[in-house]
């Protein structure tokens, strides 16, 4: 008896595949010996076609007893009916796949045929929208608290600004500064803005920043909270810098006024009254930059270089080639200063003599009309002993 079995490997995955040659296995039973040959069987040979997965047929070494069913007992000369087709499920194929996807699908293992590889993951829009809505609703109380604190802070800061400005205007600080030499520096630093308005504006922003920090903290946003805390920590430096500028302006005004009164309207007095306030403001500028922490190392180096250059220039001017000229200038300035001071003193005494009805003869201020003191070579008549009561002070 001879039994031929023909096995065809078919993969049912819905993809077009090129025709593959059928593998035919012949099994002969002749005197208890079996042999497989690739040839057509004689008439009456039973041929079974079984469709299996492509991975099940690997080569010629596959055992032949797995390729045959229980039809080995079919007698020679009879043709049995076609057996049922065994179909192994395969991953579904999608129309329009690119060749690369097909290759990847065939090469990689089946557990990697996922949507993440082939782009078949579908986003659930409803869930995403719901999550976003939940987050917004959860953040809404923080946003409302932020707006409420900001509005309250603006109102409070505005009220404090108005109160500070009215108080400074009542003191008349703008008028005092306008009549002083500090008005020139303040007008350059704050053009078109009075001192009262400038101070009130600084107070307004100071109060508003405090409320802004509290409002940002209510948002519970870590980055904004850190930033506002840094701003709040830097704000005292700004206030100290403003205070240094105002104090330096007032000090420079006082220095200029004092020099004018001491040295009069002399060339040296004019020079000193111009230079000293400028030096005070330059020092104040270095102090402000240092307080604001703006390139502190460079500020220190520049300040040291400026002061050193000024001292070196004065030393060279008065110690070397300019010593005779500087001596004459100082002598002339001193003489003129003394002359101006004596003239001013005489003018004041003459005015007081004319205004005093109890001294019609002017004996209280007759110092400049009498001879000099005999003890003094320049005052042989001893008139110094008869000075008026106003000169005794």
TrEMBL record:
Top-rank taxon, per record: Bacteria
InterPro entries: MSC_TM_helix (IPR008910), MscS_archaea/bacteria_type (IPR045275)
One Gene Ontology MF term: mechanosensitive monoatomic ion channel activity
Chain intervals for the UniProt region annotation (Disordered): 1-90, 344-393
Composition bias, Basic and acidic residues: 23-40, 62-76
Key words of the record: Membrane, Transmembrane, Transmembrane helix
Amino acid composition bias (Acidic residues), ranges on this chain: 46-61
Protein name: CmpX
């Amino acid at each position: 008896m001879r039994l031929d079995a023909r096995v065809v490997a078919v993969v049912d995955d819905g993809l077009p595949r090129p025709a593959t040659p059928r593998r035919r296995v012949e099994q002969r039973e002749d005197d208890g010996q079996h042999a497989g040959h690739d040839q057509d069987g004689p008439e009456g040979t039973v041929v079974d076609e079984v469709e299996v997965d492509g991975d099940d047929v690997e080569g010629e070494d596959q055992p032949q007893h797995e390729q045959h069913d229980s039809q080995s007992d079919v007698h020679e000369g009879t043709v049995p009916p076609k057996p049922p087709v065994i179909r192994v499920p395969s991953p579904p194929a999608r129309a329009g796949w690119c060749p690369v996807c097909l290759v990847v699908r065939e090469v990689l293992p089946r557990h990697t045929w996922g949507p993440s590889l082939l782009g078949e993951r579908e986003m659930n829009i409803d869930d995403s929208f719901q999550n976003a809505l939940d987050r917004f609703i959860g953040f809404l109380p923080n946003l409302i608290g932020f707006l409420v604190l900001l509005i309250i802070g603006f109102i409070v800061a505005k009220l404090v600004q108005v109160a500070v400005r009215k108080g400074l205007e009542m003191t008349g600080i703008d008028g005092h500064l306008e009549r002083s030499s500090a008005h020139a520096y303040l007008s350059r630093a704050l053009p078109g803005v009075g001192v009262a308005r400038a101070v009130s504006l600084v107070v307004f922003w100071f109060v508003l920043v405090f409320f802004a920090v509290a409002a940002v903290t209510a948002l519970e946003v870590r980055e904004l909270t850190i930033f506002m805390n840094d701003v709040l920590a830097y704000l005292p430096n700004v206030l100290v810098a403003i205070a240094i500028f105002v104090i330096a302006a007032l000090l420079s005004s006082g220095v200029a006024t004092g020099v004018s009164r001491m040295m009069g309207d002399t060339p040296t007095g004019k020079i000193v009254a111009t230079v000293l306030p400028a030096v005070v403001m330059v020092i104040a500028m270095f102090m402000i930059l240092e307080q604001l922490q703006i390139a502190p190392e460079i500020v220190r180096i520049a300040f040291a270089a400026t002061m050193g250059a000024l001292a070196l220039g004065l030393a060279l001017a008065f110690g070397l080639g300019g010593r005779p000229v500087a001596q004459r200038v100082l002598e002339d300035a001193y003489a003129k200063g003394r002359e101006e001071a004596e003239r001013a003193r005489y003018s004041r005494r003459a005015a007081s003599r004319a205004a005093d009805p109890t001294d019609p003869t002017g004996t209280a201020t007759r110092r400049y009309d009498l001879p000099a003191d005999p003890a003094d070579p320049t005052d042989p008549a001893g008139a110094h002993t008869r000075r008026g009561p106003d000169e005794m002070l």
